[in-house]
Hints:
The chain is an all-beta fold. 3% of the residues lie in helices and 61% in strands.
Amino acid sequence: MLAATVIAAQRNALGQEALRVGTEGNLxxxxxxxxxxxxxxxxxNFLVGPTAWRFSxxxxxxxxxxxxxxxxNPQSSLVLQPSVGSIMHWPVTLNNSLDFxxxxxxxxxxxxxxxxxFNVQPGSQLSFDIYVGDCKINLHDRLNITDVGYQNPGVAGxxxxxxxxxxxxxxxxxxxxxxxxxxxxxxxxxxxQLNTTTLPSVTSENFYGDAGIPIQPELIAGVESGVSLINxxxxxxxxxxNVSAATQWYAGIFASYxxxxxxxxRLDGGHTDYIPDNTVGGFPSASDPGYYFSxxxxxxxxxxxxxxxxxxxxxxxxxxxxxQTRTYVQLNPYYxxxxxxxxxxxxxxxxxxxxxxxxxxSGEDYDQFTIGLTVSRxxxxxxxxxxxxxxxxxxxxxxxxxxxxxxxxxxxxYQF
Length: 416
């Protein structure tokens, strides 16, 4: 169960959107039970019957100096990025509520029109909270469509779109047995390649749960476990038997500590194993056991600085469908040092390895780091402008997967 922090302010924010099953599903889903707590109609600005809405629109202008992630002869393009967004809250009863959010757009590549496509940003979802006695149940469906290649290490040098659809639908329930706090959940996940026949699409059935006890008012500790049943839908040249399957399970412990109103931390760790059922199209046939851990620290240092630090190790799926072991660290600091300006300098480093690359008979090891600068300022009460820069560098033992990329984006967002 690995922590996942979603930063959805704009399309080029740092984040990993590759398919994560097994150890990451638990926390991401159970957090959904708490993210909407405290939601009130006063947050929204447009009422339609019992539903409250909020709408936004945006326009981005981006320069991308390496749209195909090539080491040699990189191709650049200017990209127009119009987008629209909406949020809806419907208090169905005093205890039950339906929430909807969508942030969708289009990327128009002026110099390479074949790369143009629609997208749906992280955070787009439908969620329904139900209270049955003391039990809280959350039904959810989360959707993301992206072609941001650097978010999936190993896709460098592709001559076509890497447009992928990631959808997760399921439920998670929370119930307290006295001092024992429990979560049980199920998710069906689809990872579908939309514009390529050389990479597999993936589906998985994910079952997870945890149970914790407050040791102190500010400290909760307990155990966690889960299992994922994974199926690869192979296409194109990687279609000798059509389907390859695997099972991944994990078991471990967690601790959540609220040191103060300004400092909180969470630690997860344990054992995980990825067990393929058969070998198809270059997938590894041996079990891949190992350990996982994740630690997240959220700290408001003072009125001028706050940050979130996440680090961990996981066994999950790469963009090509194979299992990979990934060690990562992500730092997101936010500065309030200039009046009316919001500034952040996100940084991510990850190191990963895959036993077998889909088109080769050998494994691959990679290193990737990204660093950026984002500055936002309100122009009017409803209009905000953001200027951002992002640098990506990926090195790999596979020569064709080495590249650098620079992204410069100027965007405008209007809240109706």
